[in-house]
Amino acid sequence: MSTLYLSQPGAQLHKDHDRLLVKRGDEVLEAVPLIKVEQVVLMGRGVSISTSALHALTRNGIDVVYLTGTGKYVSRVIGQEHKNGRLRHQQSLLASDPLFSLRTAQNIIYGKIINQRAVVRRHAEGAEWAGRALTGMEDMIKMLGTAQEADQLRGMEGQAAREYFGLFRRLLHPPSGGGSWNFDRRAYYPPPDPVNALLSFVYSLLLRDVTTACELIGLDPYLGFFHVIDYGRPSMALDLMEEFRPIVADSIVLEAVNRPYVSIEDFEQVDLSEKESERDENEQPRESTQAVYLAGSGREKIIAMYENRVNDESMFNYKGQQVSYRQIFQLQAQAMARLILGQAQDYEPFTVR
User: Fold this and answer.
1) Pairing state of beta strands 12-16 and 19-24?
2) How distant is the alpha carbon of residue 324 from its chain centre?
3) Residue 50, helix vs strand vs coil
């Protein structure tokens, strides 16, 4: 086990000698050796952690992440932070260099679209429209090198994303019980349908892991080269996350829907107008007050799928190492650090074919 999740209402995390106990009242739900845990995630308002458990985790360099019940990041408690001041200073300088930022961002988006193309090819199953779609994506990849500034590149990436999710919609199988997923486009302020709810939830899990990778290596997760630097936005983590969105998160969503592992009954509709006072003042304005979110059992299914995917060390032979996605997140953060320190000429994204 690497990540311990607490998501059941009433669950509490306690320390007992060298073990962590997940309890609800007097009932022990799970007992895990502390040495086997790399991260603890508390999800939703109904879960808690004891002071002794919190102290033990931070002393052992195990971070504690708080997420909302829908997977949105709230806060993080860590032990002593990374001491690589030189790396963060150089990262800050280069984030203000438009030419360096543009070149690095082009490589990041190149990796993302290559991996989007791989997802479409794998799941289209020889459909007649697939050939034209894949050619169009190849043309978009070639266009990236013509961008002269960051905003132009962001426009290209946005266009590629819209076209990709149009194809993604065609890869979805209908619900097993009939009806429709009602997925027309990528929308997330808030998610208006089950597929968007799945995408947002898995992206939150992925961002949490990539942010952790940044901090383990010593990168400042808030100073990126592609995403605009703004208050509360982990731009570097979002940059490094781009190449993994299709091959980790989107692939999990397609598998969950098409196998199927989830059904319409795993989602709930929420009227956000009743929770307006809970909205963070730094959040973007909501597109709607009606939202669709994963319910409890659906959430547990997707968490299990995600953990299986990112921890499977049989996935890749990466430069001679048999590694999992979670290890690749750290290897890519290291690659970014080498670039920033002048130890590499370019950032090479992780891609699959």
Assistant:
1) antiparallel
2) 15
3) coil
What structural domains and CATH numbers belong to the chain? Answer: 3-77 (3.100.10.20), 85-340 (1.20.120.920)
Instruction: List 314's β-bridge partners, or say none.
Output: none
Please give the C-alpha separations between residue 158 and each of 155, 170, 187, 216, 267, in angstroms, as whole numbers.
5, 19, 13, 30, 28
Nearest to 220 by CA among 41, 93, 346, 61: 93
What whole-number distance in Å separates Cα of residue 37 and Cα of residue 14?
Answer: 14
Residues 6+ apart with CB under 8 A from 261: 255, 301, 302, 305
What pLDDT does 286 receive? 62
Cβ burial of 104 (10 Å; 0-12, 13-18, 19+) is buried
First to last CA, the chain: 29
Find all residues with CB under 8 Å of 99, minimum gap 6, and list them: none
Interval 207-242: pLDDT, tens: 999 999 998 899 999 999 999 999 989 999 999 999
The amino acid present at 150, given as its one-letter code, is A
**DSSP code of residue 218:** T
pLDDT 10s digits, 10-37: 999 999 989 999 999 989 999 999 988 9
Q: Let me know the angle formed at the C-alpha of 293 by 7 and 66, rounded to the nearest 5 degrees.
A: 35
The b-or-e profile of 289-327 (16+ CB within 10 A means b, else e) is eebbbbeeebbbebbebbbebbeeeebbeeeeeebbbbb
If we measure between CA atoms, which residue out of 44, 37, 36, 39 comes closest to residue 12?
44
| Closest C-alpha to 290, from 272, 308, 314 | 272
Strands (E), 150-214: none
Q: How far apart are CA 183 and CA 117, in angstroms?
A: 20
User: Does the predicted model carry a pTM greater than 0.85?
Assistant: yes
Nearby residues of 144 by Cβ (< 8 Å), 6 or more positions away: 106, 109, 110, 113, 153, 156
| Separation between Cα atoms, residue 24 and residue 30, nearest integer Å | 10
SS3 content of the chain, % helix, strand, coil (to 5): 50, 15, 35
